[in-house]
């Protein structure tokens, strides 16, 4: 335990036997001098280049705690207990900071993965990189299945012994091949108009040949 002793008051030295009696009484009083015991170490600081500890004295209030130089103290166990407590607090702070940093990294990684997954879903549901739709989409949205109104027939061709019309749609620049049978049923007037234009064109060619 650390000690802080009060000094006895100085006075004139008695002479002779009386002096001896006073000396004996003085020694007894000195032995009974109050000894201050350190209850705990409260704080630490560097003051004028040396380490000092704030000591709480046993039997005294907090307002009577005093700063004492480390070199003057005789309470190594209490000092070590205080230093250990400080080290544990610092370690806890570092661990907490590391956990916060790790949480931030994990959150950023999660947001990045979610963004990548969203982009992947967009890519799979939209056109492919070359601007073409998948075969499934082409089958689903070709011809009259696109829900567009036919405008006119641009041309005709044959595939697998089946007549197909190249149909131009209203308010759309993309033409589709449709089955002639389906066109005859859905837009007979446009089919008739196509044949009439071809007949007129052939008739004009025949007249030119006769000349």
UniProtKB/TrEMBL annotation:
Bias (Basic and acidic residues) occurs at 112-147
Q: Name one GO molecular function term.
A: chromatin binding
Domain Chromo, by residue range, is 36-94, 148-206
Instruction: Read off the Pfam families from this record.
Output: Chromo, Chromo_shadow
Name this protein carries in UniProt: Chromo domain-containing protein
**Coiled coil regions in record:** none
Annotated GO CC locations: nucleus; pericentric heterochromatin
SMART domains, A to Z: CHROMO (SM00298), ChSh (SM00300)
Source organism's superkingdom? Eukaryota
Q: Where is it located? A: Nucleus
Alphabetized UniProt keyword annotations? Isopeptide bond, Nucleus, Phosphoprotein, Repeat, Ubl conjugation
> What InterPro entries does its record include?
Chromo-like_dom_sf (IPR016197), Chromo/chromo_shadow_dom (IPR000953), Chromo_dom_subgr (IPR017984), Chromo_domain (IPR023780), Chromo_shadow_dom (IPR008251), Chromodomain_CS (IPR023779), Heterochromatin_chromo-domain (IPR051219)
What are the recorded Gene Ontology BP terms?
Answer: heterochromatin formation
């Amino acid at each position: 335990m650390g000690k802080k002793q009060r000094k006895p008051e100085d006075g004139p030295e008695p002479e002779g036997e009386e002096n001896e009696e006073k000396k004996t009484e003085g020694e007894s009083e000195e032995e009974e001098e109050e000894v201050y015991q350190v209850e705990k170490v409260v704080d630490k600081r560097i003051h004028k280049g040396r380490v000092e500890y704030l000591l709480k004295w046993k039997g005294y209030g907090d307002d009577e705690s005093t700063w004492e130089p480390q070199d003057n103290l005789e309470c190594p166990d209490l000092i070590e207990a205080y230093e250990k407590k400080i080290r544990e607090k610092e370690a806890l702070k570092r661990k907490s900071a590391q956990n916060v940093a790790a949480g931030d990294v994990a959150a950023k990684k999660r947001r990045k993965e979610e963004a990548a997954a969203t982009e992947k879903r967009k890519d799979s549901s939209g056109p492919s990189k070359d601007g073409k739709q998948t075969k499934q989409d082409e089958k689903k949205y070709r011809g009259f299945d696109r829900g567009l109104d036919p405008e006119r027939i641009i041309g005709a061709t044959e595939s697998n012994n089946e007549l197909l019309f190249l149909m131009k749609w209203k308010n759309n620049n993309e033409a589709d091949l449709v089955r002639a049978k389906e066109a005859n049923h859905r837009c007979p007037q446009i089919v008739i108009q196509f044949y009439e234009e071809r007949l007129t064109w052939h008739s004009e060619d025949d007249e030119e040949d006769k000349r």
